[in-house]
Design a protein that fits this description.
InterPro entries: FAD/NAD-bd_sf, GDP_dissociation_inhibitor, RabGDI. One of its GO terms (cellular component) is cytoplasm. This protein is of the alpha+beta class. Helices cover about 25% and strands about 20% of the residues. The longest helix has 18 residues.
């Protein structure tokens, strides 16, 4: 614990351009070098890399440390902002997110269309998107955010997400007294290449009947 505390204290505010990294460490030093410098054991490394920084595997160990430090800072900022947990979840489920987006879009003069088939997405001479063509309309744009199915010639499938949704009639005892939680199982502890995420959500979020729970188990294969 003392070594972990020393590590966190040493990099407190290090993303501030006016603050220097500890001696012997630069923003491009690997995370493995940083861990070795502060003598963090395997358990502490998994806590930092997989719970705080939310890396899905150990590839980050050989990457520049500033990427992980940015993730840790985001976790800390979110925890300070929201209190007991760095995570937030919308009432009535994730379906509220696109609804909120469309409402904000309308407030700022945006246009949104439902069930509108897209004929094609056209690119300019610079290789960047320039317009979206529908059956009878064309919209010019600089940015398109869409499902990969809209860009079949520009995406390549490399992995898949496996997900299991469980309906429970009892709380998860391991997280008591909390009724909802995010559980992260590091890949190395279960002989996998990617971490397993378990989101436990209670009826307090109005996504299931009273005294019921939803547990979503997900990983990458």
């Amino acid at each position: 614990k003392l070594k972990l505390r020393s590590f966190i204290s040493a990099f407190e505010g290090c993303l501030d351009p006016l603050k220097k990294y500890p001696d012997g460490i630069t923003k491009n030093s690997s995370m493995e070098e940083v861990y070795n410098r502060y003598g963090l054991n395997k358990e502490n490394q998994e806590l930092v890399g997989h719970v705080l920084a939310l890396h899905q595997n150990d590839e980050y160990l050989n990457q520049p440390c500033y990427k992980t430090l940015e993730r840790i800072q985001l976790y800390k900022d979110s925890l300070m902002l929201h209190g007991k947990s760095p995570y937030i979840y919308p009432l009535y489920g994730l379906g509220e997110l696109p609804q909120a987006f469309t409402r904000i879009s309308a407030v700022f003069g945006g246009t949104y269309m439902l069930n509108k088939p897209v004929n094609r997405i056209e690119m300019g001479e610079d290789g960047k998107v320039c317009q979206v063509v529908f059956a009878d309309e064309t919209y010019k744009t600089k940015i398109v955010i869409g499902d990969p199915s809209y860009f079949p010639d520009r995406v390549k499938k490399v992995r898949s997400v496996v997900r299991c949704i469980c309906l429970l009639n009892h709380p998860v005892t391991a997280i008591a007294p909390s009724m909802s939680a995010q559980i992260i199982i590091p890949a190395s502890q279960v002989g996998r290449k990617s971490d397993i995420y378990v989101s436990v959500i209670s009826s307090d979020f109005n996504i299931c009947p009273p005294n019921m729970f939803v547990a979503i188990v997900a990983s990458i294969v």
